[in-house]
Amino acid sequence: MKTPNANRKAPLFAAILAGGRGERFWPVGRRSRPKQFVDLFGGKPLIAHATDRLRGLVPTSRILVVTSADLVQATRAALPSLAPEQVLGEPEGRDTAAACALATAWVRAKAGESAVVAILTADHLMADAVGFRETLASAASVAAARPVMALVGIKPTHPATGYGYVELGAPFSGPGLPKGFRKVRRFVEKPNLGTAAVYVKSGRFVWNSGMFVWRVSVFEDALRRFRPALSEAMGRLSPLFASPRAVRAALKREYSALEKISVDYAVMEKADNLVAVRGDFGWDDVGAWTSAGEHFPKDASGNAVHGAAQLLAATGNVVANTQRGHLVAVMGASDLVVVHTPDATLVCTREAAPGLKALVAQIGADPATAHFVE
Amino acid sequence: MKTPNANRKAPLFAAILAGGRGERFWPVGRRSRPKQFVDLFGGKPLIAHATDRLRGLVPTSRILVVTSADLVQATRAALPSLAPEQVLGEPEGRDTAAACALATAWVRAKAGESAVVAILTADHLMADAVGFRETLASAASVAAARPVMALVGIKPTHPATGYGYVELGAPFSGPGLPKGFRKVRRFVEKPNLGTAAVYVKSGRFVWNSGMFVWRVSVFEDALRRFRPALSEAMGRLSPLFASPRAVRAALKREYSALEKISVDYAVMEKADNLVAVRGDFGWDDVGAWTSAGEHFPKDASGNAVHGAAQLLAATGNVVANTQRGHLVAVMGASDLVVVHTPDATLVCTREAAPGLKALVAQIGADPATAHFVE
């Protein structure tokens, strides 16, 4: 299938929110090198996957990355094809409402109120990049054609309890509109397993991927209505984007006063002009080492191995070794996660892996080892 | 208790046979750094424990270490208080018969045929050094007083299947002789578990520790009788010990022709003048990582930890980390062995640990990783 043509009247911009933390991928992920920098998949960091998979749909010059100020340099280094001004640093984390507003203000400054913005994530994998671009292109054409905000939902593959769900309502269709869009009925929090199973079986729910597409003016209207203070702050910022220095100063000035709230709570759950599509392109949030292993080469005993390792009588392990010249050897063990980096080595059970945060907290709380999580 | 006085008419020499291999302690142990160099216990290598525990019984100048030629430099470095001539290198391994004969020839050259030689091991731990010296002193006094060879057996603590056993016979006693010695009835190979249990229960068996004490002339007589070729080779070597260079040349000349056989097979099982004592001084052959863990500090969850580590919800693990500045973290796992060194990391179950040799063989057989066992 051909990737839809990116030339359209309303230019499409991509704003990648890169606010991830490193805890779930310790010791590869650190505070100074959070998940979007993890480079165990296809030889490049997740954030480079996030930009590269836009190729053919969004020109590089129309990509913006919003990250924390202390990660700006690392982000620019990871994405050398972006101009410095395409990586914006937030002086402090204010959750996604502020980041979405900032990104939309940046696009307005570049291309005006009729430009379309796709809010994307920095630390997910998508097996089917073509399918992803097609879905994104269709959402962009909906957002260009109608005063709606489009959520790119994910078709659930199992009753996950770690994601928010979005219930779909009536079809949203009309002349010239792509198929597959529906009005959003409601957002629901991470459900328990029973509820999740009901949701998945019903066929009416999608996972909330955090990906949205809107026209600048449409999001601005919603912001003005539901978050006037944030709207006004962005109004003050918008004229300053021509000067990186002025923007930095203004961000410092404005950010501490901004409300810390997700765009879902702040805007999406309240808006009545929300539509969604059921995305099906191999989305994976790579939420823990066990999921990471799904993307590593497998040996005949079901071990997922990245890097130099020797295994004997070992089954179902996830092994990642990022240090050149170092050998990891596993014998007799099953269903472990073994991760080796030049200064720290993790051994845990697959079962315990999703709870890695607690171990990272323990390491960070001990003055003798705190530096291993920085 | 006072350590018995080392001054006696027949001076006591100690010959430490240091021919160990590194496989069971990979990755800390390597071919070039076998078990006697493992320094995880009390901050010094096992071979230094072997010399240090003689203090007060055998003067440093009366210690000889017999090792392989390629380990002579490393051995001298590990034992700086020994003169270079006190570390003899065998040009090739010929098992313990040759090493015992060589050691005895060296002692004859130093102190004549009435000197007493204690053949000792380089890679064991003994919790009760005082008890060890007392036992060794009593064996030395038996060997000085009577034309017998004394085996320092070990009182079995459990029905081990990994050691040879020695059956004791009638008491060997007499005026001026220390108590506790018995004639040796027979040597038995490593038994199965049932047989081992019978042996232990009987009270008549000791483990064969590989430690023997004999007068030079008594061992020479036995050698002449049971291994004439070896006896003659040593007769040619003995006058050369004054010149290290001449000895090296003679060893090269003689060694390749020597029979490769243990002293047990070659001499001890045939001799009728063998006595033994039931040693009880916390002997531990530290045969695998699991046994090594017994000597590490324990945390409240039964983890045995050497070096920098953080553990969470982990029980019964053995963790050894020899790299300064590196952190090993273990979460949710039980009964694992985790060993980290600067260039290799091992993760295996406690159960699999005794079979480490197979993993080391696999690593050594792969050209990409063979250097990790050297």
Strand order, largest beta sheet of chain A: 3-2-1-4-10-6-11-8-7-9
Task: Write the CATH homologous superfamily of the largest domain in chain A.
Answer: Spore Coat Polysaccharide Biosynthesis Protein SpsA, Chain A
Shape designation of chain A: globular
CATH class of the largest domain in chain A: Alpha Beta
Helix count of chain A equals 11
Element-level helix/strand string of chain A: EHEHEHEEHEEEHEEHHHHEEHEEEEEEH
Mean pLDDT of chain A: 95
Radius of gyration of chain A equals: 21 Å
Structure class of chain A? alpha/beta
Structure description:
Chain A is of the alpha/beta class and 374 residues long. Chain A has two domains: 12-284, Spore Coat Polysaccharide Biosynthesis Protein SpsA, Chain A (Alpha-Beta Complex); 289-373, no CATH class. In chain A, 30% of the residues lie in helices and 24% in strands. The first copy, chain A, is built from eleven helices and 18 strands. Chain A has a ten-stranded mixed sheet, sandwiched between helices. In chain A, strands 13-15-17-18 form a four-stranded mixed sheet. In chain A, strands 5-12 form a two-stranded antiparallel sheet. In chain A, helix 1 (46-52) links the parallel strand 1 and strand 2 (63-68). In chain A, helix 3 (95-111) packs across helix 7 (228-237) and helix 6 crosses helix 7 (228-237). Chain A is globular and about 60 Å long. Mean pLDDT of chain A is 95; it is low at 1-8. The interface between A and B is large, with 38 and 38 residues.
Structure in a nutshell:
The structure is a homodimer of 374-residue chains. Chain A is built from 11 helices and 18 strands.
